[in-house]
Write a structure and sequence with these properties.
The chain is α+β, with helices and mostly antiparallel strands. The protein folds into 2 domains: 86 residues; 232 residues, Bira Bifunctional Protein, Domain 2 (BirA Bifunctional Protein, domain 2, 2-Layer Sandwich). 42% of the residues lie in helices and 21% in strands. The strands form 2 sheets. The chain has a 7-stranded mixed β-sheet with strand order 1-5-6-10-9-8-7, sandwiched between helices. A 3-stranded antiparallel β-sheet has the order 2-4-3. The chain binds phenylalanine. Pfam families: Phe_tRNA-synt_N (PF02912), tRNA-synt_2d (PF01409).
Length: 339
């Protein structure tokens, strides 16, 4: 009988369990009211006197082993549960991480920056809340100049000197004030104009303006730069320059690129002509150079400014400019495959 007890001790020691139910079954088998231990305790009185001592010790050892086993297994299972509670099931495969999409405005802006950086232009940025000097006066638009009406301006009510910039030409003024030629810089950013919101225009949009100032810069340099840009950007080099007027450039021109009329969006954005008006440009007026501390007898330069939104709309066939600022994920998700 003692040998049988020793076997049971070895069995109890070797026992292991995965669930609480298994531990409970084990406990009942050994320690329950009708369990093995009670059976053996009941046998005690039948054991020969000389064996009683050893029997007693062995049965106590079995009891201790079984009790310790139950406690140890319970502790082990509980600590596993705690880990699960905090971290979930650590063996599960991870949640897939959703990769976002770049906004079409950013995609096109980065393309433009990339194209100009290849010919030595750096990127300059400035504040969206501007003062009158940087947005207007320094650009040859003194107070009461009628051309101020060309750009319906949002003023900050309490101070007529402070406004939301109407173009990023203000950044070029800041750049010229702080840097001497040679200057080759482009200024991307958001601009604001007090216009009625429709499918074609918004009260804010995005521009990239460029400025090149050095000795002997000519209109031919400007035209070559534009030709390079449109070829890189649109894969098309058919452009036309229409004479125009800007207070800060003389002579001035507007640039159209021939895009074609393949889709309804092409019709809508090019107003049925196939030509997209992409930018204004011209030779920087000497007054502007002087206003910004650059000697106009020594240096000349050209400037240009284009709207990103309309280019993005054409390239990505977006029929309504308002989609660009509504942040509807169903729209934004469509650009996942773009740059
Ligand atoms: N600043 C002008 C605009 O906002 C664009 C422009 C820039 C025109 C530089 C000529 C030269 O419309």
């Amino acid at each position: 009988m003692i040998d049988k007890l020793k076997e049971l001790i070895a069995e109890a020691e070797a026992f292991s369990a995965q669930t609480k139910e298994e531990v409970e079954t084990f406990r009942i088998k050994y320690l329950g009211k009708k369990g093995l231990l009670n059976d053996y305790f009941a046998e005690f009185k039948n054991v020969a006197n000389e064996q009683k001592r050893e029997f007693g010790q062995t049965i106590n050892q079995l009891k201790k082993t079984a009790e310790e086993k139950v406690q140890a297994l319970r502790d082990e299972l509980e600590s596993k549960e705690e880990v699960k509670g905090i971290y979930g099931d650590l063996s599960r495969p991870g949640e897939p991480i959703e990769i976002g999409a770049r906004h079409p405005i950013s995609i096109v802006k980065n393309q433009i920056i990339d194209i100009f950086s290849r010919i030595g232009f750096n990127v300059s940025e400035g504040p969206e809340i501007e003062d009158d000097w940087h947005n207007f006066t320094a650009l040859n638009l003194p107070e009461y100049h009628p051309a101020r009406d060309m750009q319906d301006t949002f003023f900050i009510q309490t101070d007529p000197d402070i406004l939301l910039r109407t173009h990023t030409s203000s950044v070029q003024v800041r750049y010229m004030e702080n840097n001497q030629p040679p200057i080759r810089t482009i200024s991307p950013g958001r601009v604001y104009r007090n216009e009625a919101i429709s499918a074609r225009s918004h009260c804010f949009f995005h521009q990239v303006e460029g400025l090149y100032i050095d000795k002997d810069v000519s209109f031919a340099d400007l035209k070559q730069t534009l030709q390079y840009f449109t070829t890189e950007m649109f894969g098309k080099s058919e452009i036309r320059l229409r004479p125009s007027y800007f207070p800060f450039t003389e002579p001035s021109a507007e640039v159209d690129v021939y895009w074609g009329l393949k889709t309804e969006t092409d019709y809508r954005i090019t107003k049925g002509t196939g030509w997209l008006e992409i930018m204004g440009c011209g030779m920087v007026d000497p007054n502007v150079l002087e206003n910004c501390g650059i000697d106009s007898k020594e240096y000349s330069g050209f400037a240009f400014g284009m709207g990103i939104d309309r280019i993005a709309m054409l390239l990505h066939q977006i029929g309504d400019i308002r989609l660009l600022s509504e942040n509807d994920v169903r729209f934004l998700e469509q650009f996942k495959s773009a740059l």
